[in-house]
Each structure stands twice: as structure tokens, then as C-alpha cells.
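Re-run with default settings, no changes from the original entry. Doing this only to confirm the output is reproducible before filing.
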Amino acid sequence: MAEKKIEDRVEENTQMLKVIERDIDKIKNNHLFHIERDMDGIRKTVDKMDARMWAILLLLITASIGSIFGDKLISLL
């Protein structure tokens, strides 16, 4: 009788392991692909925002320098 229970437990554990292996395979092959794709999209968006911020900073510095030298040039004329 005890051996039957052990055999049943072994079968249950085998079935559970198959389910776990299937879930791990699904996560590895499906979900990680989507996460990587989303991360690439986010990376591209951040790179675009970074370029725009540098452009705005460059424009602000140029405008500030232009206003300083513009006033001096006007006073010289």
C-alpha cells in the first residue's frame, strides 16, 4: 500500500515538473523576446530625447552668447 502512494507521488511530481518545464520554456522563448523588443524601443526613444535635449541646450547657449556679443557689437557701431 505504501509503495502505491510513493508511485502516485512520483507520477504527480513528474506531471508537475512537465508543467514547470513547459512554463519555463514559454517564458524563455516568448516573453523574453517581447521584453527585449520593448527595451529596444525604449532605448531608441531615450536616444531621441537625449539628442533633442542636447540640441535645445546648444540653442540656449548660442542664444545667450549671441545676446551678449550682440549688445557689444551694437554698442560698438
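Helices lie at 2-76. The chain has one helix and no strands.
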